Amino acid sequence: MSTTLGSPTPSGVPQRLRRGKRGRVAEPKRPDDLVDRVYLPGQKNGIPLRPNSAALFFLARARDEAHRFSNRARERLGKARRFRSDLDDIPGIGPVTRRSLLKTLGSLDAVRRATDEALLAVPGVNQKILRALRTYFPAPAAPPTER
Questions:
Q1: CB neighbour list of residue 15: distance below 8 Å, 6 or more residues apart
Q2: Backbone phi, then psi, for 7, in 5-degree steps?
Q3: 86-136 architecture in CATH?
Q4: pLDDT by residue (tens digit) across 14-40?
Q5: Alpha-carbon span 25 to 14, nearest angstrom
Q6: Measured in whole angstroms, how far is the alpha carbon of residue 65 from the centre of its chain?
Q7: How far apart (Å, rounded) are the C-alpha atoms in residues 43 and 17?
Q8: Of the chain's two ends, which shows fewer C-beta atoms within 10 Å, N or C?
Q9: What is the number of other CB atoms lying within 10 angstroms of the CB of residue 30?
Q10: What CA–CA distance (Å, rounded) separates 86 from 4?
């Protein structure tokens, strides 16, 4: 067996990692240190579980399911945050209208700068939705005209 970390020792840990500048690798002091333990609230000592026991497999499945559940919830929250828009805060603007505005005009900044005529040209936008948009995004200032 060859390794780039140093010669292997009987415990399987390369010699260079066991002693040297990088510190020490913890090795079990007693054979029962390899046993998984379950710690209950208020108890100092854990309940040992035998390897390959049904209780250990059950707890591992419960742990894995809890992690799957929490990771999925975290993914959903992150996705909702990433796809959030200021248009979501405007009452009267639903997901279909929001999608139509962004698809037609291209961006939220373009929606802010759009004239009333450009907004009314978007499919699904009527006078009521235009009023709702203008309460949140005032009409852009008209460019100065030369006389």
A1: 6, 7, 8, 9
A2: -75, 140
A3: Orthogonal Bundle (1.10)
A4: 444 444 444 444 444 565 556 788 888
A5: 10
A6: 17
A7: 35
A8: C
A9: 7
A10: 55
